[in-house]
Amino acid sequence: MGLDSQTPCYEIDSSEVDMEESKLIGEGAYGEVYLVKWRGTEVAAKTIRSSISSIEIVKKAFLKELALWQKLRHPNIVQFLGVLKNPDRLIFITEYLRNGSLYDILRKKGRLDQQTAVAYALDIARGMNYLHQHKPHAIIHRDLTPRNVLQDEAGHLKVTDFGLSKISQKRDNGYKMTGGTGSYRYMAPEVYRRESYGKSIDVFSFALIVHEMFQGGPSNNAETGEQVADKRAYEDSRPSLSSYIYPDPIKMQASPRMLAQEPRLQTDIRRNNRTAGDDPTGSAI
Protein backbone atom coordinates (compact mmCIF):
# COMPACT_ATOMS: atom_id res chain seq x y z
CA MET A 1 0.00 0.00 0.00
CA GLY A 2 2.80 2.36 0.89
CA LEU A 3 1.57 4.62 3.71
CA ASP A 4 3.52 7.83 3.25
CA SER A 5 3.73 11.34 4.67
CA GLN A 6 -0.01 11.82 4.31
CA THR A 7 -0.52 9.27 7.09
CA PRO A 8 -0.72 11.05 10.50
CA CYS A 9 0.67 10.12 13.90
CA TYR A 10 -1.39 6.95 14.33
CA GLU A 11 0.98 5.09 12.02
CA ILE A 12 2.73 2.23 13.87
CA ASP A 13 6.20 1.08 12.87
CA SER A 14 6.08 -2.53 11.68
CA SER A 15 9.14 -3.36 13.81
CA GLU A 16 7.00 -2.85 16.92
CA VAL A 17 4.55 -5.61 15.94
CA ASP A 18 5.73 -9.18 15.40
CA MET A 19 3.38 -10.53 12.75
CA GLU A 20 5.53 -13.68 12.46
CA GLU A 21 4.44 -14.72 15.96
CA SER A 22 0.81 -13.80 15.35
CA LYS A 23 -2.11 -16.13 16.04
CA LEU A 24 -5.15 -16.24 13.75
CA ILE A 25 -8.21 -15.61 15.93
CA GLY A 26 -10.87 -14.69 13.39
CA GLU A 27 -11.80 -14.40 9.76
CA GLY A 28 -14.56 -12.41 8.12
CA ALA A 29 -15.79 -10.94 4.89
CA TYR A 30 -13.06 -8.31 4.78
CA GLY A 31 -9.99 -10.18 6.00
CA GLU A 32 -8.33 -11.96 8.91
CA VAL A 33 -7.85 -10.98 12.56
CA TYR A 34 -4.63 -11.89 14.37
CA LEU A 35 -3.60 -11.73 18.02
CA VAL A 36 -0.24 -9.95 18.20
CA LYS A 37 1.84 -8.05 20.73
CA TRP A 38 2.54 -4.36 20.37
CA ARG A 39 4.91 -2.84 22.94
CA GLY A 40 4.27 -5.83 25.20
CA THR A 41 0.48 -5.53 25.05
CA GLU A 42 -1.84 -8.01 23.34
CA VAL A 43 -3.76 -6.30 20.54
CA ALA A 44 -5.80 -7.35 17.51
CA ALA A 45 -4.28 -6.88 14.06
CA LYS A 46 -6.93 -6.76 11.34
CA THR A 47 -5.91 -7.27 7.73
CA ILE A 48 -7.93 -6.24 4.70
CA ARG A 49 -8.06 -8.84 1.93
CA SER A 50 -5.74 -8.14 -0.99
CA SER A 51 -8.68 -8.52 -3.40
CA ILE A 52 -10.13 -5.42 -1.72
CA SER A 53 -7.04 -3.49 -0.68
CA SER A 54 -5.29 -3.68 -4.05
CA ILE A 55 -7.77 -1.21 -5.54
CA GLU A 56 -6.64 2.41 -5.38
CA ILE A 57 -10.03 3.86 -4.43
CA VAL A 58 -10.19 1.39 -1.52
CA LYS A 59 -6.77 2.49 -0.28
CA LYS A 60 -7.89 6.12 -0.30
CA ALA A 61 -11.12 5.23 1.48
CA PHE A 62 -9.14 3.29 4.10
CA LEU A 63 -6.91 6.27 4.85
CA LYS A 64 -9.94 8.54 5.07
CA GLU A 65 -11.62 6.18 7.54
CA LEU A 66 -8.46 6.01 9.68
CA ALA A 67 -8.55 9.76 10.17
CA LEU A 68 -12.07 9.35 11.56
CA TRP A 69 -11.51 6.22 13.65
CA GLN A 70 -8.57 7.66 15.58
CA LYS A 71 -10.83 10.43 16.92
CA LEU A 72 -13.55 8.12 18.25
CA ARG A 73 -13.66 7.43 22.00
CA HIS A 74 -16.53 5.61 23.69
CA PRO A 75 -16.74 2.75 26.25
CA ASN A 76 -19.01 0.75 23.93
CA ILE A 77 -16.84 1.13 20.82
CA VAL A 78 -13.75 -1.05 20.23
CA GLN A 79 -10.76 1.28 20.41
CA PHE A 80 -8.73 1.89 17.25
CA LEU A 81 -5.01 2.15 18.09
CA GLY A 82 -3.25 2.71 14.78
CA VAL A 83 -2.31 1.48 11.33
CA LEU A 84 0.72 -0.68 10.61
CA LYS A 85 3.30 0.46 8.09
CA ASN A 86 3.21 -2.32 5.51
CA PRO A 87 3.87 -1.97 1.78
CA ASP A 88 1.85 -5.05 0.86
CA ARG A 89 -1.24 -5.13 3.09
CA LEU A 90 -3.73 -2.88 4.85
CA ILE A 91 -3.36 -3.71 8.55
CA PHE A 92 -4.86 -1.78 11.44
CA ILE A 93 -4.54 -2.35 15.17
CA THR A 94 -7.36 -2.31 17.75
CA GLU A 95 -7.71 -3.26 21.38
CA TYR A 96 -8.00 -7.03 21.94
CA LEU A 97 -11.10 -8.34 23.73
CA ARG A 98 -10.42 -11.90 24.81
CA ASN A 99 -14.01 -12.79 25.78
CA GLY A 100 -15.11 -13.16 22.17
CA SER A 101 -18.27 -11.97 20.47
CA LEU A 102 -21.98 -11.87 21.16
CA TYR A 103 -22.25 -14.62 18.55
CA ASP A 104 -20.04 -16.83 20.74
CA ILE A 105 -22.13 -16.00 23.81
CA LEU A 106 -25.41 -16.90 22.11
CA ARG A 107 -23.95 -20.09 20.67
CA LYS A 108 -22.79 -21.16 24.14
CA LYS A 109 -25.68 -19.97 26.33
CA GLY A 110 -28.68 -19.83 24.01
CA ARG A 111 -31.48 -17.56 25.15
CA LEU A 112 -30.36 -14.93 27.63
CA ASP A 113 -32.25 -13.93 30.76
CA GLN A 114 -34.11 -10.63 30.54
CA GLN A 115 -31.70 -8.67 32.73
CA THR A 116 -28.65 -9.73 30.72
CA ALA A 117 -30.36 -9.26 27.35
CA VAL A 118 -31.52 -5.74 28.21
CA ALA A 119 -28.06 -4.82 29.57
CA TYR A 120 -26.42 -6.08 26.40
CA ALA A 121 -28.96 -4.27 24.22
CA LEU A 122 -28.22 -1.01 26.02
CA ASP A 123 -24.47 -1.49 25.57
CA ILE A 124 -24.92 -1.92 21.82
CA ALA A 125 -27.37 1.00 21.69
CA ARG A 126 -24.98 3.35 23.48
CA GLY A 127 -22.19 2.50 21.07
CA MET A 128 -24.40 2.78 18.00
CA ASN A 129 -25.99 6.00 19.20
CA TYR A 130 -22.51 7.50 19.60
CA LEU A 131 -21.78 6.63 15.96
CA HIS A 132 -25.16 7.86 14.71
CA GLN A 133 -24.85 11.17 16.59
CA HIS A 134 -21.37 11.84 15.24
CA LYS A 135 -20.92 15.32 13.74
CA PRO A 136 -20.85 16.61 11.08
CA HIS A 137 -21.97 13.29 9.57
CA ALA A 138 -23.50 10.21 11.18
CA ILE A 139 -21.37 7.06 11.07
CA ILE A 140 -23.39 4.15 9.68
CA HIS A 141 -22.10 0.70 10.62
CA ARG A 142 -23.63 -1.14 7.63
CA ASP A 143 -22.75 -4.58 9.01
CA LEU A 144 -24.05 -4.75 12.59
CA THR A 145 -24.19 -8.45 13.55
CA PRO A 146 -23.52 -10.51 16.71
CA ARG A 147 -20.04 -11.28 15.36
CA ASN A 148 -19.27 -7.55 15.28
CA VAL A 149 -20.16 -7.03 18.93
CA LEU A 150 -17.37 -8.02 21.35
CA GLN A 151 -17.32 -8.47 25.14
CA ASP A 152 -14.72 -6.88 27.41
CA GLU A 153 -13.37 -8.32 30.65
CA ALA A 154 -15.99 -6.46 32.70
CA GLY A 155 -18.78 -8.15 30.71
CA HIS A 156 -19.80 -5.08 28.72
CA LEU A 157 -20.29 -5.16 24.96
CA LYS A 158 -18.45 -3.06 22.38
CA VAL A 159 -19.26 -2.51 18.72
CA THR A 160 -16.48 -3.16 16.21
CA ASP A 161 -15.75 -3.16 12.47
CA PHE A 162 -17.89 -0.12 11.63
CA GLY A 163 -16.77 1.39 8.35
CA LEU A 164 -15.19 -1.75 6.87
CA SER A 165 -18.24 -2.46 4.74
CA LYS A 166 -18.13 1.11 3.46
CA ILE A 167 -14.48 0.69 2.46
CA SER A 168 -15.18 -2.58 0.67
CA GLN A 169 -18.11 -0.97 -1.12
CA LYS A 170 -15.79 1.43 -2.94
CA ARG A 171 -14.71 -1.53 -5.02
CA ASP A 172 -18.19 -1.89 -6.54
CA ASN A 173 -20.13 1.34 -6.52
CA GLY A 174 -17.74 4.14 -5.71
CA TYR A 175 -19.22 6.63 -3.30
CA LYS A 176 -22.86 5.80 -3.90
CA MET A 177 -24.37 4.63 -0.59
CA THR A 178 -26.42 1.73 -1.93
CA GLY A 179 -26.26 -1.98 -2.58
CA GLY A 180 -25.34 -5.35 -1.09
CA THR A 181 -23.23 -4.43 1.88
CA GLY A 182 -23.47 -6.24 5.20
CA SER A 183 -24.44 -9.78 6.23
CA TYR A 184 -27.64 -11.12 4.68
CA ARG A 185 -29.25 -12.42 7.88
CA TYR A 186 -29.14 -8.97 9.50
CA MET A 187 -29.63 -6.91 6.36
CA ALA A 188 -32.33 -4.24 6.14
CA PRO A 189 -34.78 -4.65 3.22
CA GLU A 190 -33.73 -1.43 1.50
CA VAL A 191 -30.10 -2.58 1.42
CA TYR A 192 -31.02 -5.95 -0.07
CA ARG A 193 -33.15 -4.19 -2.69
CA ARG A 194 -30.14 -1.96 -3.49
CA GLU A 195 -31.97 1.23 -2.64
CA SER A 196 -30.53 4.33 -1.01
CA TYR A 197 -30.37 4.09 2.77
CA GLY A 198 -29.48 5.87 5.98
CA LYS A 199 -28.78 4.99 9.59
CA SER A 200 -32.15 3.21 9.89
CA ILE A 201 -30.45 0.13 8.41
CA ASP A 202 -28.46 -0.17 11.65
CA VAL A 203 -31.69 0.13 13.66
CA PHE A 204 -33.12 -2.82 11.72
CA SER A 205 -30.00 -4.93 12.36
CA PHE A 206 -30.05 -3.94 16.03
CA ALA A 207 -33.66 -5.13 16.37
CA LEU A 208 -32.75 -8.53 14.94
CA ILE A 209 -29.86 -8.85 17.40
CA VAL A 210 -32.18 -8.00 20.30
CA HIS A 211 -34.60 -10.62 19.00
CA GLU A 212 -31.86 -13.25 18.98
CA MET A 213 -30.81 -12.47 22.55
CA PHE A 214 -34.33 -13.21 23.79
CA GLN A 215 -34.88 -16.05 21.33
CA GLY A 216 -31.48 -17.71 21.80
CA GLY A 217 -30.41 -17.39 18.17
CA PRO A 218 -31.91 -17.01 14.69
CA SER A 219 -35.45 -18.37 14.38
CA ASN A 220 -34.93 -19.33 10.74
CA ASN A 221 -31.75 -21.41 10.70
CA ALA A 222 -33.28 -23.77 8.15
CA GLU A 223 -32.98 -21.04 5.52
CA THR A 224 -29.86 -19.45 4.10
CA GLY A 225 -29.11 -15.86 5.01
CA GLU A 226 -29.89 -14.75 1.48
CA GLN A 227 -33.27 -16.52 1.54
CA VAL A 228 -34.11 -14.77 4.81
CA ALA A 229 -33.10 -11.36 3.43
CA ASP A 230 -35.11 -11.91 0.26
CA LYS A 231 -38.29 -12.73 2.19
CA ARG A 232 -37.87 -9.70 4.41
CA ALA A 233 -37.32 -7.43 1.42
CA TYR A 234 -40.10 -8.71 -0.84
CA GLU A 235 -42.58 -10.57 1.39
CA ASP A 236 -42.41 -8.35 4.50
CA SER A 237 -41.35 -11.37 6.58
CA ARG A 238 -40.44 -10.56 10.19
CA PRO A 239 -39.61 -12.57 13.34
CA SER A 240 -42.58 -13.39 15.54
CA LEU A 241 -42.74 -11.40 18.77
CA SER A 242 -45.03 -13.91 20.48
CA SER A 243 -42.88 -17.05 20.40
CA TYR A 244 -40.61 -16.11 23.29
CA ILE A 245 -40.38 -13.93 26.40
CA TYR A 246 -39.96 -10.22 25.67
CA PRO A 247 -40.17 -7.48 28.28
CA ASP A 248 -43.51 -5.84 27.53
CA PRO A 249 -42.20 -2.33 26.67
CA ILE A 250 -39.87 -3.77 24.03
CA LYS A 251 -42.44 -6.20 22.65
CA MET A 252 -45.26 -3.70 22.41
CA GLN A 253 -43.37 -0.57 21.35
CA ALA A 254 -39.73 -0.80 20.30
CA SER A 255 -39.39 -3.93 18.19
CA PRO A 256 -42.29 -3.34 15.77
CA ARG A 257 -40.94 0.14 15.00
CA MET A 258 -37.37 -1.04 14.53
CA LEU A 259 -38.47 -3.79 12.14
CA ALA A 260 -40.76 -1.57 10.06
CA GLN A 261 -40.66 -2.22 6.33
CA GLU A 262 -40.25 1.45 5.41
CA PRO A 263 -37.18 3.31 6.75
CA ARG A 264 -39.29 6.42 7.44
CA LEU A 265 -41.34 4.35 9.92
CA GLN A 266 -38.31 2.98 11.75
CA THR A 267 -37.45 4.75 14.95
CA ASP A 268 -33.93 5.56 16.07
CA ILE A 269 -31.83 3.63 18.57
CA ARG A 270 -31.92 6.40 21.17
CA ARG A 271 -35.74 6.43 21.32
CA ASN A 272 -36.03 2.64 21.49
CA ASN A 273 -33.68 2.34 24.42
CA ARG A 274 -35.48 5.02 26.36
CA THR A 275 -38.37 2.57 26.04
CA ALA A 276 -36.19 -0.05 27.73
CA GLY A 277 -35.51 2.32 30.60
CA ASP A 278 -32.25 3.98 29.58
CA ASP A 279 -31.07 7.04 27.70
CA PRO A 280 -27.96 6.04 25.76
CA THR A 281 -26.97 9.67 25.31
CA GLY A 282 -25.76 9.83 28.90
CA SER A 283 -22.47 11.13 30.23
CA ALA A 284 -20.41 8.43 28.55
CA ILE A 285 -20.92 10.11 25.19
Give a brief description.
This protein has 285 residues and is of the alpha+beta class.
How much of the sequence lies in strands comes to: 5-15%
The radius of gyration computed from the alpha-carbon positions, rounded to a whole number of angstroms, is 19 Å
What form results from the Cα inertia axes?
globular
Count every beta strand, where a strand is a DSSP E run of 2 or more residues. 8
Characterise this structure.
It is built from 10 helices and 8 strands. The protein is of the alpha+beta class. It has 2 domains: 85 residues, Phosphorylase Kinase, domain 1 (2-Layer Sandwich); 174 residues, Transferase(Phosphotransferase) domain 1 (Transferase(Phosphotransferase), domain 1, Orthogonal Bundle). Strands 1-5-6-4-3-2 form a 6-stranded mixed sheet. Strand 3 and strand 4 form a beta hairpin. It starts with 10 loop residues before the first strand and ends in a 10-residue tail after the last helix. The C terminus is likely disordered. Keywords: ATP-binding, Kinase, Nucleotide-binding, Transferase. GO terms for molecular function: ATP binding; protein serine/threonine kinase activity. It comes from Actinidia rufa. This is VH1-interacting kinase.
